[in-house]
Amino acid sequence: MKEQPLYGRVALVAGATRGAGRGIAVELGAAGATVYCTGRTTRSRRSEMNRPETIEETAELVGEAGGRGVAVAVDHLEPGAVGALVERIDREHGRLDVLVNDVWGGDPLTAWGVPLWEHSLADGLRLLRLAVDSHIITSAHALPLLVRRPGGLVIEVTDGTDTGGYRGSFYYDLAKSSVIRMAAAQAAELRPHGGSAVALTPGFLRSEAMLDHFGVTADTWRKAADPHFRASETPAFVGRAAAALAADPDRARWSGQALSSWGLAREYGFTDSDGTRPDWGRYFEEVVLGGREADDTGYR
């Protein structure tokens, strides 16, 4: 029988419709957890992202992986809706062990290489609402349930670590940096209650949207126009990072830190779904920043 270190645990993945959120939800399920998969896109209604992936599909994938997936349509900018979600989790399980704040939705609102004064102010502020305010609202409602038992874990999904440079867009950079600081702040507030919080970044993510962007599929991804995409990773990789953290009885040692999928893969020994171990951090530093010809040899 497959080992399930998170059997009996309850997780909430806010923003589980696709990408990293879906990957994390599925891998938490593979480890045995009950996973509440939330988002705005359902089989009957799409969000402003206008993507085909749905929370119901994510919940089904959680079940297929060995866990129990529960799809709940929630706009995490609506405090009442988030409060009702947490009340439901409390009513059905009386506990919350893992909270993953992955709500994003800012891709169509980000203008790359455009200075602050030329960027749409309305788009920028909407991006911050989606990517920052939603996380705050979710934590504010969920943490009272999470701290009821010692050992609770909050994972704030971001892009990059706190050692990185400017991310190419004022609002995008502010959003992702804010999430890292939120993890550090929640770590400080959770510590007296026996809880932990971390920020977690994937590498170059082979998400559904990125595959579509490059006009490739999960089977033909190495043919993408951007040669650096060959060093990418699937959402399962960051999902396994999250699951490894949640299953680690000594996870408090990471609390307050900004972690990466590739760094945790070295620590815990997991691989991506193809059996490789992508190291985007070293690749980015040595190849992308180093100006070398794109080649992922030696970085898996």
Automatic annotation (TrEMBL):
Gene3D superfamilies: NAD(P)-binding Rossmann-like Domain (3.40.50.720). This is NAD(P)-dependent dehydrogenase (Short-subunit alcohol dehydrogenase family). The lineage of its organism: Bacteria, Bacillati, Actinomycetota, Actinomycetes, Streptosporangiales. NCBIfam families: PRK08303.1 (NF006159). PANTHER family: DEHYDROGENASE/REDUCTASE SDR FAMILY MEMBER 1, DEHYDROGENASE_REDUCTASE SDR FAMILY MEMBER 1. InterPro entries: NAD(P)-bd_dom_sf, SDR_fam. Pfam families: adh_short.
